[in-house]
Design a protein that fits this description.
binds thymidine-5'-diphosphate, about 140 residues, about 5% helix, mainly beta
Length: about 140
């Protein structure tokens, strides 16, 4: 079973270049109401980010510049994808352990989230995640 669900955004390109618009309250491709947007950039190529799961939060990650690798783990299997297409997002469902690594120097990882930042929603211990996921 694939842990990955791609979310396709419409590429509004013309001879000047490309553009993707995500309208809050109107975007049909994202399967939740977007309440927060954040992005990471200038990430060192030797670090792993993420390394957590969320109890309830759903997110869509879009690599709007450059590339990185994303690992998904549902407690039973671990799968990996490269993100390098600005009009394609990956759904990070709740209770998916995720890790990002191998960031290119120009990588900008934009994330759409279903709720505001809440540290209580994080599971930051892998052993705790495995316990909850296999319950
Ligand atoms: P962190 O959870 O380490 O990011 P990642 O999952 O990409 O490794 O977040 C880095 C810091 O930013 C941490 O102190 C929490 C803070 N933060 C916010 O304040 N708001 C947010 O929306 C996010 C995602 C992080």
């Amino acid at each position: 079973m694939s842990l990955f669900q791609w979310i396709d955004f419409q590429k509004l390109g013309d001879e000047r270049g490309s553009l993707v618009a995500i309208e809050i309250g109107k975007e049909k491709a994202v399967p939740f109401e977007i309440k927060r947007v954040y992005y990471s950039y200038e990430t060192r190529s030797d670090v792993r980010r993420g390394l957590h799961a969320h109890k309830e939060l759903k997110q869509v990650a879009i690599c709007v510049s450059g590339s990185c690798r994303m690992v998904f783990d549902d407690g039973n299997q671990r799968q990996e994808k490269i993100l390098d297409i600005p009009e394609k997002g990956l759904l990070i469902d709740k209770m998916i352990w995720h890790e990002m690594y191998d960031f290119s120097p120009d990588c900008v990882l934009l994330v759409l989230a279903s709720d505001h930042y809440n540290e209580d929603d994080y599971i930051r211990s892998y052993s705790e995640f495995i316990k909850v996921a296999r319950r």
